[in-house]
Structures are given as structure tokens and as C-alpha cells.
Amino acid sequence: MTHKSRAIFLAAALVVLASAASAFAAPGDKALDDVRVLSADDMQGRAPGTPGSEKARAYILSRFAEIGVAPIGASFEQPFEFAKRDGTNIRGVNLVARIKGTVGGKAMVVSAHYDHLGVRNGEIYNGADDNASGVAGLLAVAEAFKAHPPKHDVILAVVDAEESGLRGARAFVAAPPIPLSGVALDVNFDMLSKNPKNELYVAGATPFPFLKPVLDAVAAKAPVSLKQGHDTDAAGKQNNWTNQSDHYAFGEKGVPWVYFGVEDHPEYHKPTDDFATVPKDFFKRSVATVVEASLAFDRDLDQIAKASGR
């Protein structure tokens, strides 16, 4: 073999090895990259109706293609319109995909919003935790279900305009891709990456006590401290997360929900919510936790649907 032939052979071998490594990557391995890309300055804070929002959608769609999920119908993109406070109309776009279950029956929705606050007074609000982290968690769940096919259909709802009043989630439930009667549970991710106490919270077990055994089992093995709460007014309305993110739109329609997130931190809704401030080790363990929780909910979805009367 000549030196030139040997070089070509080695280059080809490296490509094959890289492809193999990618094919066998563990679910969630790309989560940090997803946050980094979605919270970069060139996304301009991902405000609805902006070029940055369009760029974020293009990236998420590229990840859908990489993971191998399918749209429901002709397109992943589900546009909607809403009016701003000044009366002008904004076009939002939800991204919806499905992973078919092996058994069927009721479906589970996994949701996360990809929008943030955009540019204000010349400063970019990158929203690394809020909510690039939740989208990254959703993509990790999608990877896990592609690697280990779910029993039930899993609908991935990456929704727009949460910061404008849950507009994307409300558009989703107003015109759902399947009848809402066929949805047993919404699993919502919003802010998964920043907590100095190693704590991730999950809300929903108080209004839906049939979820508690599943969450207790996940918490017992979770690589973070998974705490339940923030779903009543017991500690004050400001600490009740029931209506604080997209799961509330599902709850308004009678769909049970769980919401995973961290408590507010100094970067919340500030220009400093950048990728550089994400504690990488905690975030990776947080993603591993929501992946395992999603797998557990799929395993027990028939019992959850029965207990909720759906």
C-alpha cells in the first residue's frame, strides 16, 4: 500500500469509526451541545416571529432528522397566530413529532418550549436554562425512545411562545394532532440545568396522586435529588407551579401532567442565562433523570390512564 493509499484508507476508517460512535451514543450525550447551540448569540433569544426563532427551529428539525422521528401528517411545523398586547399579530410555530409505540393504546406527550425573551434594550436574553435545557431534555428522551421503542405512542411537542402566555401549548391543545381523549399524560420540561443544591423538582403528584409511586421509584435511583412539590398553594401562590408552564394548557383540558424544573436562580429571565453559567455535571444528571422518568411513565401509562379515568 502506498503512503497515499494508506492515508486514504485511514481517513475512511476514521469516518466509519466516527459514524459508529455516533450510532451507539448514549441518549442525552448531545444534550450539552443542544443547549450550547440553542442559547448562542446568533439565536437572538429565540423570540417568536424572529429570524432567531426560525434558526432555532431549523436546528431542532435537524436533530429530529438525526434521531429519526417522524411528523404527524405532512409536516413537523404547526403554525399559529396570536396577538401581542399592542394588537399586532405574531406567527408562532410548534414542532410536533411522534415515535410510534409497539403496543398502542393511550399516548404520552413530552413537551418543552423553545422560545425565550429575545433582545431587549440591546441585550440578548439567551435562555440557556429557560428553556434550551428543556428542549435538550426532550431530545434526549426522543433518543432514548428510539433506542428502546416505547409501548405507547410518544408525541414530542416543542412549542413556541410560552413566554407570551403559553400560546404554543394552547394552540396545540386547541387543535391536537390526535384527540386529547387519547392522551394519558403530558410530561413537561422547563428549566432543567441550574441548581447549586443538586435538586430537581417535579410537580404533579399532589393533584394526580396516582403518579406518586412512579415518581417515588424514579427518585430512589435518580442521580440528582428529585424532590416532589410546587403543586399546591401551601407555601404561597408564587411557589405553586401549576399554571407556570405549558403543562397548564393540558391541565385546563383535563389531561394529567407532570412538570420537571429547577427553582428560580439569579440568572432567571436575565441576560446572564448563558451556556457558560450552566453547571454541566448537574445538567447531565438532570437529563438522565427526566429520561428515566419518561421511560417509567411509558411503562406504567395504562395504569395511569385507568387511574385518571381516561
TrEMBL record:
SUPFAM superfamilies: Zn-dependent exopeptidases. Residues 94-292 form the Peptidase M28 domain. Keywords: Signal. Residues 1-25 form the signal peptide. It comes from the Bacteria. It comes from Caulobacter vibrioides OR37. Pfam families: Peptidase_M28. GO terms for biological process: proteolysis. GO terms for molecular function: metalloexopeptidase activity. PANTHER family: METALLOPEPTIDASE M28 FAMILY MEMBER (PTHR12147), PEPTIDASE M28 DOMAIN-CONTAINING PROTEIN (PTHR12147:SF26). This is Peptidase M28 domain-containing protein.
